[in-house]
Design a protein that fits this description.
This protein has 402 residues and is α+β, with helices and mostly antiparallel strands. Helices cover 44% and strands 21% of the residues. Strands 1, 2, 3, 4, 5, 6, 7, 8, 9 and 10 form a ten-stranded mixed beta sheet that branches. The model has no long low-confidence stretch (mean pLDDT 96).
Length: 402
Amino acid sequence: MEDYLGKLKSGDLKLHALEQVLAPDEAIQVRRRFIEELTGSSLQKVGSYTIAMDRVVKRNCENVVGAVQVPVGIAGPLLVHGEYAQGSFYLPLATTEGALVASVNRGCRAITNAGGATVRVLKDAMTRAPVFSTRDVAHARDVAAWADAHQDAIRGVAEATTSHGRFLGLSTAVVGTSVFVRLEFDTKDAMGMNMVTIASQKVAELIATSTGARVVALSGNFCTDKKPAAVNLIRGRGRSVSAGVALTEAQVRETFKAPGAALADVCYRKNLVGSAIAGSLGFNAHAANVIAALFIACGQDPAHVVEGSSCITTIEPSSEGWYCAVTLPALPVGTVGGGTGVDTQAECLSLLGVAGGGDPPGAHARKFAEIIAAAVLAGELSLIGAFAAQHLAQAHQDLGRG
């Protein structure tokens, strides 16, 4: 180790090159020791991990020094009636926010006692939107028109890059001399950003060659990736999914210690009116809380929580009492690729019965999306119930005081 530390200090060896001369765990140990000596900080706990690093250093992270552990709590059982998710599920929630797991668990109990949540995938399409520069507005309109008229040719070059993905269609937008082409793909069980990026590169080259437009950026933010955006709220991105449950007045009062009308009032004034006056693109109580906890536990890209936060929660009177629902227009999730192969995250996916590719392809990712939507519904019900019963502060004092 001392020889490699000396080379790092002299500059004869770069941090990123350690895996070229050492096995992954040895490279990580040397790199961590170098950073500790350089900064005077101990990384002993970061250096204690159980995941196999061979895959991680090749596919998930560069300049690895160890791993950060996040507590994982279990909520459930949660009864789900989806087209892909059928049965009771225990939810692995990775979080450091006290009261979150307990809150979701209460929502799970309410949903399960009511007979389960009905869940449906509304749309399944991952997007990438290259932006082009054109000569003038006439040329811009012609470029957009060409893309609309030549979707078969676009499909051909896009699908030649992947054995799994399928091109679904496109939409265009023109702003002055800028042309945006929003491409949609079925990515099966993968979240699909790598897949659609590679395919979009070939599509962008075809459009540029055929029209004389210049490719400015492979992502022009009309996708929209990892940013709050109305286009995702309206058109969807990734898996668009909705979950609902019918609760009787007695069930609401028994679980949440408040009348159904109080929950509906909180939902209306907080989630809908409050979000509107704030200019929010999310109309929910805390959907991102549940999504983030499941994403971290199950190897999803946490940055995509921002799309999931566009959830809309509704509570309305029904013949049985109250119908409560969540709609998540943009939920980019996958069960293969990315962080899903990391050992601990793979175990959490296995717990949900969605690890790896599904049969038929895409079934596992859609099942996972349905479970997430039902979990978000559980979280929304519980928090709204806490507000309605004026219990929120007490719950955080008892379970989450830091």
